[in-house]
Amino acid sequence: MKHLLGIEALTRAEILTLLSEAKNVGAMTRAAKRELLRGSVMVSMFFEPSTRTRLSFETAALQLGCGVTGFSDAQNTSATKGESLEDTVRMCAAYGDALILRHPLLGAAHRAAAVSNVPVINAGDGAGEHPTQTLVDLYTMQQRLGDLDGLRVGLAGDLCNGRTVHSLLLALAKFRNIKVSCFSPTPALALPESQRRHATLHGIDIDDADSLATLAQRVDVLYMTRVQTERISGSEPFDAVAKLEHYVLRAKDLAGAAPNMCVMHPLPRVREIATDVDALPHAAYFEQAGNAVSVRQALLLQLLR
Ligand code: CP
User: Fold this and answer.
1) Catalytic residues
2) Which of 45, 118, 183, 296 could be stapled to 156 by a disulfide with Cβ–Cβ 3.0 to 4.6 Å?
3) Which of 177, 130, 136 is nearest to 153 (CA)?
4) What is the rounded CA–CA span in Å between residue 241 and residue 236?
5) Ligand 1 pocket check for 53: Cβ under 6 Å
6) In which band, very low, low, confident or very high, does the pLDDT at 136 lie, cut at 50, 70 and 90?
7) C-alpha 15: how far from its chain's center?
8) pTM score, whole prediction
């Protein structure tokens, strides 16, 4: 693997190897890890806000002894003077050994890879993909539930604009006997037909649920997402959607769920998971965010060692 731009580029075997490496690196002591990437430099290029992705990548690198440079706000870069994405990438590639790129434009990571002589990792490109989030999601499912084959997964929220859902669905298509049930708070946020078709063509049994409580009863994983208002022009009507009662998962909705069913969310959550879910054993979302360090370490080791 030279770059990681989309989850489609990874085979099932490559995904499972990365997850296994993440488990191994997660079990290592800090002392054992800190020489593994000594002398390397990772560049964080965040043209869009981030808490988890940037900080977990930087933590992952620092624990491996890898230096970190970059920016978390493109307003402080020469992009404000009109420098193109390609030229910014060329410069960062001259200074670092791997580029972690988040950008609001779909396809930005592919543009970056076309001019970079060091690995580019897509940390989210508009409504496109977020492949490392998917690796974190699959790792969390594996840790919680074991085998990834045979999973029943509920996808809820903004299935139209949420890039984490798009990457996750592409990855699930690489596993066997997957069932997916979808719930969107409004038809405008439903899973695009092209993605539904792709999932079906790849053997995923896909249907719809009429409420979060119904979904919770029929799945092993309930994957919640927020409305991606920053990607929707004229998003005011969707601010109202975000406040709809039937789009808020509450502890009472999980009464009929299997004991080991897990609620996941790439975060940040806004209103769609009530805080009374946090204390339940089903709540896996903070653990999921924590797993990001080991998973991103496995990826950095594979790309930089
Ligand atoms: N899950 C995720 O991508 O979170 P951030 O936007 O905070 O990086």
Assistant:
1) 52-53, 81, 102, 130
2) 183
3) 177
4) 9
5) yes
6) very high
7) 14
8) 0.95
Q: What angle do CA 166, 61, 101 make, to 5 degrees?
A: 40
Tell me the CA–centroid distance for residue 213 and ligand 1, in Å. Answer: 26
The answer, yes or no, to whether any atom of ligand 1 lies below 6 A from the CB of 162, is: no
For residue 272, what are the CA distances in angstroms to 14, 210, 219, 227? 33, 16, 18, 9
pLDDT in tens, 36-63: 999 999 999 999 999 999 999 999 999 9
End-to-end distance of the chain based on CA atoms, in angstroms?
12
Q: Which of 52, 101, 130 is the best mutation target for the ligand 1 pocket, counting ligand atoms within 8 Å of the beta carbon and taking the most? A: 52
Residue 124 alpha carbon to ligand 1 centre in Å: 9
Collapsing DSSP to helix, strand or coil, 153 comes out as strand
- Phi first, then psi, for residue 232 (nearest 5°) are -115, 115
Instruction: Using most ligand atoms within 8 A of CB, pick from 50, 229, 231 the residue to mutate for ligand 1.
Output: 50
Angle at 101 between CA 100 and CA 104, to 5 degrees: 160
Average pLDDT, the chain: 95
- Which residue's CA is minimally distant from atom 5 of ligand 1? 50
Q: Decide: 134 in ligand 1 pocket, CB within 6 A.
A: no
**Residue-wise pLDDT tens digits, 230-241:** 777 666 666 667
User: Relative to the CA of 130, which ligand 1 atom is closest?
Assistant: 3
